[in-house]
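PROTEIN–LIGAND DATA SHEET

This sheet pairs a single protein chain with one bound small molecule, flavin-adenine dinucleotide, given as SMILES. Inputs appear in the order they were entered. The predicted three-dimensional arrangement of chain and ligand is reported afterwards as a token string under its own label.
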Amino acid sequence: MDFNFGPEEESFRAEVRKFIAENKPEKFDAYSGRDQAVLDTWNRKLAEKHWIGFAWPKEEGGGGGSLLEQFILKEEMSAAKAPPLGSDFMGLQWVGPALIRHGTEEQKQRFLPDLLNARSSWCTGYSEPDTGSDLASITTRAVLEDDHYVVNGSKIWTTAAHVSENIFLLVRTTTEDETRESRYGGMTCLLVPMDTPGIEVRPIRSLVGHHSFNQTFFNDVRVPLENRLGAEGEGWRVVMGALANERSGISESTSKERELEALKELARGACKNGRPALEDSLVRGQIAGFETRISAMRLNGMRYLTRQLNGQHPSSETSVNKVISNQLALDMADLAMTLLGSKGQLAGATQFQSLAMHGSVIGGGAPNIQRNIIAERILGLPKD
Ligand SMILES: Cc1cc2nc3c(=O)[nH]c(=O)nc-3n(C[C@H](O)[C@H](O)[C@H](O)COP(=O)(O)OP(=O)(O)OC[C@H]3O[C@@H](n4cnc5c(N)ncnc54)[C@H](O)[C@@H]3O)c2cc1C
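PREDICTION REPORTED AS:
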């Protein structure tokens, strides 16, 4: 097995490093203030190089880069603590790929250019007040009346709905009583502008007091037929592909490498038994354990990449890295709080991150559900 990159990839890596050295904003801190003008300039330069949506096909406006080159691009950007590639994580990570796979020409032309030029903002409407893990039991209903769907119901935990332009929405077009197919056959995916009359967004505060979630209500919301993504009844297939892309994004090892660097920095500054905590053998052992798990994630990521290079779309296997990534995040947060000692009671970026992590592991699907996916679909164990 050869884990080395070839000369073409290494030459691309050198190009990325040169770009970062010449263009990375002086001061960019992912957790503190973000200067919009600085980010706009950064995104314009990225868009000129077609590095936003770099691995999307050229005919869809993407960069036509290989998946390996995209991996290198993300790895180098993360190592340099550069701002994100584009402004719309949800849009780029799963809405765009779903549009490329299932969208009509008109939908692609309408939505993809804004994604590639950092002008879009998408949110995701799957979960409902009574439906999370068992997504197939959604009840938000869309009824076709002439050339419009009329949507009624409510979605919850809709991250960023209050600042998004569009929602990637899963609705029920056929109830279980009406369909002769399985319960998965009665769902449909709609692309809905958030300023459509009848949509109401109410904030939900997280346990750290921040407003990122919302409950989103749909009252007789009229959605044109041309905003349906894929055929009626194909929503489950569309959303399963999108969720695999979401999970592979959540579990990228590069972000964990950056978090581990910050943890080492914290251990260097913290004191244990009169010496820097980083010199303590127990702390060193824990940090070495984290490094090992991150390496496993990286190698697993390369395994998914190899499958994609062989023409397969991401699927259940992305749950493996999500489980590793989630547990790692909790264990690293735990060590961070131990290192902070009594300062852990104060407000600060590390304290905030450590608390927020408990919610974040549920986003994209709770850990138990990922374990069930691994057990049933990868290991072939009996159904839960
Ligand atoms: C940070 C964050 C961001 C989110 N963003 C969005 C978003 O933008 N859009 C959106 O639609 N949703 C979003 N969600 C919602 C998220 O997808 C759901 O919270 C998640 O799927 C779990 O659903 P639930 O909250 O209804 O919990 P439940 O499904 O009620 O689960 C509760 C507990 O029971 C366990 N459980 C449930 N079923 C089983 C089973 N069959 N076997 C074993 N254990 C089980 C779960 O693991 C969990 O521990 C977000 C959530 C978080 C925390």
